[in-house]
Amino acid sequence: MQSKENILSCTEEVRVRFNETDPLGIVWHGHYIVYFEDGREAFGREHGLTYLDIQNAGYVTPIVKSTCEHFLPLKYGETFRIVTTYVNSISAKLIYRYEIFNREDQLVCSGETIQVFLDSNGSLCLYNPEFFQNWKDKMGLS
Predict the structure, then answer these.
(1) How far apart are CA 83 and CA 11, in angstroms?
(2) Which keywords belong to this entry (predicted)?
């Protein structure tokens, strides 16, 4: 359950590149997962939880589940914004929700990813790593 008072999110503007489109000139469906990655990267920079921070603490966070729902197409040259929201959980995992909006503020795509923590031996962490719990405390998410 996520507290309404401490919702952490980030908005990033992105432009569709030529190599992301199919022969019809629309974004190929698989690239939306890459856009989610753009959102996670921006979130990490804004809120102090980058992949380098995680790696420097001795962990990796592979994605174990991803969902993506498509509503409208994006086309080459268009700009869009991706809103990435952290979903707080008591479990040792990172859950992010994504919403992609076009220039007309229409919802183009939404989705979610779940990542788990693996230590330097590749073992699944059942409890929040200390650095992550410290981050949650700092953000008021405990």
Answers:
(1) 4
(2) Hydrolase
Q: Which two tokens stand for residue 88?
A: 């707080």
**For residue 17, which of 57, 75, 103, 81 has the smallest C-alpha distance?**
75
Residue 97 backbone class (left: φ over 0; alpha: ψ -120 to 50; beta: rest)? beta
Residue pLDDT, tens place only, 82-107: 999 999 999 999 999 999 999 999 99
The C-alpha angle with vertex 34 and arms to 109 and 86, in degrees rounded to 5, equals: 70
Strands, sheet with 93-101, edge to edge from the N-terminal-most edge strand: 9-15, 79-87, 93-101, 107-116, 63-70
3-state secondary structure at position 55: helix
pTM over 0.90: yes
Identify the three-state secondary structure at position 24: coil
Write out the DSSP string of 58-126.
T-B--EEEEEEEE-S--BTT-EEEEEEEEE--SSSEEEEEEEEE-TT--EEEEEEEEEE-B-TTSPBPS
- Distance (Å) of CA 113 to CA 12, 25, 105, 116: 17, 27, 23, 10
Q: Which residues of the chain have pLDDT under 70?
A: 1-5
